[in-house]
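re: ur question from earlier - yeah i can do the single chain one, its not a big deal. heres the input i used so u can compare w yours
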Amino acid sequence: MPHQHVVKQGECLSSIAPKYGFSDWRVIYNHPDNAEFKKRRPNPNLIYPGDVLVIPDMAPKQVEVSTGGNHVFTVKVPKTVLRVLLEVEEPFAYELKYRDVVASGTTDGKSPIEHPIPADLEDAELAAWPDTPGNEVARAGGVTWALKLGHLDPIEAASGVQGRLKNLGYFSREVDGQDGPELANAVAWYQSASGLTPTGVVDDATRAKLLKRHDGA
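and the output i got, formated as tokens:
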């Protein structure tokens, strides 16, 4: 019988689905009982703590096998993709660490970093430095970020505005979803830098500009 799941901070559809035995989060997202949720959250990668999802029953799968032999079944392990775009105007090298994995590479400064990760991954560390082969000084002078995966909230929430402004360097406080002078100052700063009237109020035009720059939407 279908039951409900209340979304917690840090969860996303890709991490929720494996908890209930689904390898594809679309089975949950596209279920008819989640039509209202889907309408409210048109971007399945951005859901909000407190959202309620209906988890459908698992459809049993049957296969026919012969008796008296050994049979191998392959189980899909859910994966998702981490995609990070740094606002850098020149090629850079990077190193992504999570759990016992260390992945490295380079980009031209315009293309995003893309790497497959486990669907339930919550934390990772990303370091980047100028792509100067053999120059350890450049690597030592790089920048390192602690990534909290699944923690970015929808743009309609104050915490979603704070998170995006923080990622872009306009907001320095912790993301708490609370309005206040610090958020208003950050919004005004972003508005001024984006060619908008610096009112400090998050209006539709500000949300649209912020969403396009941060999310590429």
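The chain has a mean pLDDT of 90. not sure if urs matches, ping me
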